[in-house]
Specification:
The chain contains seven helices and nine strands, in the order ααββαβαβαβαβββαβ. The protein has helices at about 5-10, 20-40, 70-75, 95-100, 115-125, 150-155, 205-220; strands at about 45, 60, 80-85, 105, 130, 160-165, 185-190, 195, 240-244. The protein has a seven-stranded mixed β-sheet with strand order 1-7-6-2-5-3-4, with helices on both faces. A two-stranded antiparallel sheet has the order 8-9.
């Protein structure tokens, strides 16, 4: 089965069955907790879990250093979350079975089409949390982000929760290898915010501003050396969103 056919298979679903997936995802989290992370990744610190709502939809916005970042967040979050991921993850030998069983939302490289957007809306409508890496690629420093988070959060009128990630470089790695000698992963869930109602139908220029404002929130949560494109916090504004 090709990447394209996998994308079509999952994105073309007309309904999203939360109840069917919840038990399966709980089982997969059990395996991660007791088999995956004790052997393959070190968690040093998790902060701000109280910023995750007990129920209802939201979007987690993360910086993306390493392949394992969404899995780390999925592991430490108090609720099940549904990541967006490039459709190629379904084809990774061995590992590909995990995103397929979890039913992550597949995204074509450099493209979020209408079927993907519809899929995201269905997941949010079911009251779940979606995870998005707005940079669209991995790296040690923040890059100029794409407008997907702003578009989805404003149209769906759901909160955005910034999530900063540090220390995941080199993971997954077998226990006792060199990455385990460092501090390990550090995750911080920031304060949620929501885009103002007047931006529900924002155009491209406004979406760009909304995205940059959100990314400066994330940049402020990161150490200076990880802020990259958003290093100058003096450029940060708060015109398009409000804190919750």
């Amino acid at each position: 089965m090709t990447a394209d056919s996998l994308n079509n298979q999952h994105a073309s679903k007309t309904t999203y069955d939360h109840a069917r997936l919840e038990g399966r995802r709980n089982f997969l989290r059990f395996l991660l907790k007791y088999l995956g992370f004790p052997l393959l990744a070190k968690i040093d610190r998790v902060e701000g879990v109280e910023n995750i709502p007990d129920e209802g939809p939201a979007i987690l916005m993360i910086n993306h250093i390493a392949f394992i970042d969404p899995i780390v967040v999925l592991h430490v979050a108090p609720r099940n979350i549904v990541p967006l991921a490039k459709v190629e993850v379904y084809s990774i030998p061995g590992w590909g079975i995990f995103p397929r069983m979890w039913e992550v939302i597949p995204v074509q490289r450099e493209d979020v089409d209408r079927k993907t957007i519809k899929h995201v809306y269905q997941v949010l409508k079911a009251g779940e949390i979606v995870l998005v890496a707005p940079e669209g690629t991995r790296g040690p420093e923040l890059k100029r982000a794409k407008e997907g988070v702003a578009y989805l959060a404003s149209r769906a009128n759901v909160p955005v929760i910034p999530v900063s990630i540090e220390g995941t470089k080199g993971f997954p790695a077998l226990r006792f290898t060199s990455p385990w000698h460092g501090q390990g992963a550090r995750v911080r869930f920031g304060h949620p915010f929501r885009y103002l109602p007047k931006y529900r139908q924002a155009g491209r220029e406004e979406l760009g501003k909304m995205t940059d404002e959100a990314m400066y929130v994330l940049a402020e949560m990161l150490p200076v050396e990880q802020r990259g494109y958003y290093s100058n916090l003096a450029n940060a504004t708060q015109e398009t969103y409000e804190w919750l």
